[in-house]
Amino acid sequence: MNIQQLQGQQPQISQHSQTSQQMNSPNQYNLDSIPGDWKLAIIHQSAHKVGVAGKQICQCCGYHICEFQLKLSVDKEDLSFLGSGYPLYFTFIKNCIFLLCLHLMAAGQFNIISNYQGQDCLPKKRVKDETDQQCVRDIVTIFSLANRRKDQELQALQDILTLSSTFLMMAFLIYFRKNQKKLDVFCDLQELTPSDYTVMAYNINQPDKLKQYFEMDLFKLSRKINVKKINLAYDLSKINELNQIKLNILNKKKSSFLNQEYFDERELEDINNQIEIQKKNCDFTGLAFVSFKYERMKSDIIQIAKRQYLAPIINIFTGLNFNEGRMLDYYGHPIYVEVAPEPTDINWNVIYIWANHSIYRRIIGAIINIIVNIILSIVVYFSILKQVQVLGELSKNYNENDTFNEHYIKVHLYSLGYSMITVFINSFLLDELTRAIVSFQAYPTFSQVSLAIASKLSFMMFLNSVFMQCLIALESGNVYYAGGLAYNMTYFFISNAVIPPIIQMLDIPTILKSIKQYYYKKYGVLTQQELNELLEFPEHKIEASYAEVLKTMNVTFFVGPLVPLGYIFSIIGLILFYWAEKYQLLRSKTVKHTPSFQLSSRMTDSLQLIPIIHVFSSSAFKYFIQKNLSLISVIGLIIALIYHFIPNNRLVSLIWDFGEHDEYEKYCDSIFPFNYDRENPITQRKALRRWLRRQHRFEERKEKKMKSGEDYATLKQKEREIKLQLELFQ
């Protein structure tokens, strides 16, 4: 029986096997069992699907089994159960498409039409010798700036339209931030999560006094504070070493199973005992997650703490993401507090590194990133230079034995091939390099990891795709001749509009997993833990998708003034990419980590560079082609620079009042699909066992509170919707 047949039996499994598992103790679910049970692994797979959760629970992870999948037409607000990160992500792509359409209507369409009506490029029939380096009128140059490079009157009008479009983009980006914040508030009110009630405190030297400090000593009993739960973060380095030893023992056990040899179970029991002993003796990292009874109490803690001013400034100019927590006096010792990330957003395996060595790793990682960028720039520079040399040799070898059209096709095929190679390099090689650098920097949350990867990757893609090509083109003087910048970028836009969506739909990670599943089903053996992980859908990498969108936006607005058809290709490409992303997320991906609002906000910060990029590139191409720079272009560049340094988040808060949106409900662990103690590797096992028992009692209470055909959860949802309408739309 293959994996597809097993998946087809999932409803029966849910009815029979899952029911029996619900009644069993979590201790009976052995993740080290060999061979693993494929039926249990499929149940685990269903618990990690993106869809509407049912009542049944996977005993392995405590997640609810997916009852049914969502339609592709689902509204972004209905994805709020994934946190605000994914609704904001799809809104981000939509707004990028709208931004391109806005500029296309304001200035781009005038570019395309006026370029088409120009006469500065010669028809092929009038070009006798390719070595003359004439601008040949074809499908590329006829819509490019080169075809009207001598028309000064139209250029003056184009400068005015460019400036007007820049103002429209600035206004839209402010409006986008307003909708972004509004959507985040909406999602926050729709879904209760542990972070709504929790602060992350670090630099703690006396963890045993935390409860007393927050409840009694901080406010001197002037305010009532009730701490519901405290979860401490520990150094996992020794645990990881023991887990590696355990993995070797399990591999030995699998080999014994395949060879039908005896295996001494005491060896595995000994290492498990060592791990449990080590969990009780792990070093405290100085970091804790403190949850309160009401969200208002968390807000009071954050407000009373002293704000830092130096760290945010350093982060703005360096991107190193130093700690920005607010300071409290903890019995004469400074500690720092900030709103806690979601439990699934925390990188528990490196948080102990972040707590002790983050500054050094962050700086060293930044230096490595600079070195990699320099090396990459040199490689790209010489590869493009080689392209120019080959094109020059093609022109020299052009003789009467080759017709002009044959020579012309060779040049264009070479440019097209180079552009496709560039897109493939951006999609694979740069991604791996960037992930390696960010992994070394040891960010404490996956949102920060995603932010660092997206920022670095989008910059490296932009550097590789455009900047170096423009530099070579300006040096060689080949902007609009055959095989020049205009051709390379046109083919890049075409490739970039088609290849990324195709790569997304091909879904190579899923194909590779299917091959591995087939192999292990037929020939291999895995532990239950390994089998569960094998059957999980590949994780959706939101950071790579953000980087792809940012790269497209930066390249389009940088080269758009020269090749305005790029706006149209990028709009088509982003639309295809949007639906490919949505399909993959809802059908063949899993979301293990909850992206935060800060990720989308920082990506929007990156969009603030668009006005600068567009005005600068418009001025640069105009000066290079026409040897002229207007006063309007200079004014536009100055305004764009000033706009970039305006704190738009602060501006949006001043213009629109979003008010306070603290949750009215009490902290209730039973309604949270995840929590800090259930995600913390040290406390996970016991916390999951307690939560499963509590969840069973919670479901029984809900059934007793059925009212008028509606269950308790439905009534609570209606209460939240009414509350949301009162707070947001009145």
TrEMBL record:
Instruction: Extract one GO cellular component term from the record.
Output: plasma membrane
As given in the record, the signal peptide range reads none
Composition bias (Low complexity) maps to 1-22
Name the segments for region: Disordered. 1-26
**Any one GO MF annotation of this record:** calcium-activated cation channel activity
- Residues crossing the lipid bilayer are 86-106, 156-176, 363-384, 411-430, 480-503, 555-579, 629-646
InterPro entries for the chain = Csc1-like
Q: Give the keywords, sorted.
A: Membrane, Transmembrane, Transmembrane helix
Identification of the protein by name:
CSC1/OSCA1-like cytosolic domain-containing protein
What organism is the protein native to?
A: Paramecium pentaurelia
